[in-house]
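Quick illustration, no need to memorize.
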Amino acid sequence: MQLDFHLIKRLPPYVFDEVNTMKARARAAGEDIIDFGMGNPDSATPKHIQDKLTEAVQDPRTHRYSSSRGIPGLRRAAAAYYGRRFGVDIDPETETIVTLGSKEGLAHLAMAITTPGDVILSPNPSYPIHPYGFMIAGAVIRHFPVGPEHDFLASLERAMRHCVPAPVALVLNFPANPTAMTVDLDFYREVVDFARRRDLLVLSDLAYAEIYFDGNPPPSILQVPGAKDIAVEFTSISKTYSMPGWRIGFATGNERLVAALTRIKSYLDYGAFTPIQVAATAALNGPQDCVEDLRQTYRSRRDVLIDGLAAAGWQVPSPAATMFAWAPIPESYRDLGSLEFSKLLLSEAKVAVSPGIGFGEYGDGHVRIALVENEQRIRQACRSIRKFMDAGVQDNAPPKAAAS
């Protein structure tokens, strides 16, 4: 029997698995591992949202199949959020659809709009579903490097110039996972102008819109006049309300793209469990002080982490947004690459991080640190990292001799 599947062969091995296997083995052996690997919020979902779920689940009518495009009340709440937060008018009937988290929505939209062989422009490093959702759909991915050392639009122009056939879509993600980069509205104006002149669709991932610390709140590409002609944006309540396991997000913008996603989802799912959608509606329409509280939690953790790593001799830029720090590998360990450095940090300091190579080849000089442990645990991790770096452990080599 032939079990060598073409699609699976196109997907590279999931490099996080190696670190995750080591982590599981260490924990099984009784070791205390401080886990900054997965961006999995640890704070409780606000009580009023939990209460609404409990209330809704008592109604047996909510246990039936839901709607793949989302219940009307939640679509109206998503549209109201865009009006309130970004000043953008959204038609809840034609310009927004509820998704099972932004990840599912992006992957299924890729499936809906991709013809095998289409070329997609994807930043590198990036969240894996951004390129691989399209790769699974049969597209060819044209990566271009992003980061503080790169001019985004110049890299984009270069990628566009050297693509044959011409790309059909561009994926964006700001505030960015994993790099924590942010952009302003002028950036989106340039992107929209670029895309309209080159007949490009734009898929924007705005999952971290409400997790910001410095400066102005992150904008939406849909604030740019004419953006709806070519763009759809994915948002999520996972990070905003600490609801990752609830799996609720939205795709909002161009009505033809929303319609394409609606059509394909009608074949694939019946929507999220209705009580979850009711609770998500309460999250968007209810009091928002919980969002500010969560933002302050991440800000405080960020400051503890950045200061603690600096004291350990590891200089890491302070992220202006997201729940991640994008940390350059210390100079003395840079030759190891991000996977080996992550494994070394786990085995010697008992701290788990995500290797940058897992987000693309241009991420290999970094590791991603998620702010998903409390401040006490962050301080403990920084002390362990300092001992590790002071010892100078290098990939199973003996520690360096102490200075006289």
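The longest strand covers residues 119-124.
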